[in-house]
Known about the structure:
Structural class: mainly alpha
Largest sheet: none
Radius of gyration: 15 Å
Amino acid sequence: MIPAVVYILCTLTSLIAMTLLLRAYAARRVRLLLWSGLCFAGLALNNVLLFVDIIVVPEHDLSTVRQVPALIGVTCLLYGLVYDLRD
């Protein structure tokens, strides 16, 4: 019960951070906010897949599949940091 609550809270936290960052990007058009929002979108999807992997279908190992959204999100943030540094 407790791990499920923790996974859900982590997902909600990532979704809230993503929403706030993307809303701030829409208002101010600062590209770093966009890249950070996309990173948190990947992390939120990673948290959802973690919940599915550990709680919903514990008999299957989805560890490789659930790491892909986190990798894409962090890659977006890294690209944004390097891209904004050049401008």
